Amino acid sequence: MKRILLWVLAICVLASSGCGGRATRALDGAQPAQPVEKQDEVSPERNVLTAVMPSLAGLGAGSEFEFTLLAQLAEETMQASGRILYDSAIVVPVAVEKRGLIPSSFVFFSKLDAPGVVPFAFTSLPGGRGIFPGQGELLRVRFRLIANPPPGFRVRLFNDAAYLQLRSAASGRMSFDLESEVRQ
Asked: Which of 98, 92, 100, 128 is nearest to 110 (CA)?
């Protein structure tokens, strides 16, 4: 039991350093995750994380949109952590939801109240199975515009090895490619 608590504490500390307060709430009317099909798939020997957000052209203050993190995993994944960065003068996060690629048995953690960042982490419990190789959605974050976005405004995944990590069953860091997409 002590070992399980240490695992959970370690993943929470990784994701939340410098953050405090409010817990997450699920997106309203969430649909079960469906596997994501990509036209130009990357070689199955590589792990790929893809940050996706819609075009904000034509959206104004008060509108909401979703930032989605997709994964194509070539090997079993036991843990992950990261941070989603945003400009708090333009948007605020209103909800976060773990999606279908993350098994229900995993511990999932995220916070919405840290200015400019949404930290997240998830982990399998010791002795549990990981995320099997495959592709799909890891999480979605809904944002509300509080000001009109300037041209080229983006919410993005913080690409820093200290925070953005995938870990294997042997607790080793997994290499991955990072992609970003804006969809209409």
From this structure: 98
Q: Where are the beta strands (DSSP E) in the chain?
A: 48-54, 64-73, 79-85, 91-98, 107-110, 117-123, 134-145, 156-157, 165-167, 177-183
Beta bridge partners of 48: 72, 177
The answer, as to whether pTM is greater than 0.85, is no
> Given this model, what pLDDT does residue 44 score?
56
Per-residue confidence (pLDDT) for residue 35, from 0 to 100: 40
Cα(159)–Cα(83) distance, rounded to whole angstroms? 8
User: CA quadruple 11, 13, 16, 22: dihedral positive or negative?
Assistant: positive
Cα separations in angstroms, 46 against 89, 139, 158: 36, 20, 20
Give the pLDDT score at 171: 72
Residue 179: CB partners within 8 Å, gap ≥ 6? Answer: 48, 49, 50, 51
Please give the pLDDT value at position 39.
39
Cβ within 8 Å of residue 176, ≥6 positions away: 46, 47, 48, 49, 166
Give pLDDT < 70 ranges for the chain: 1-44, 184
For residue 67, which of 157, 148, 3 has the smallest C-alpha distance?
Answer: 157
Q: How far is CA 42 from the centre of its chain?
A: 20
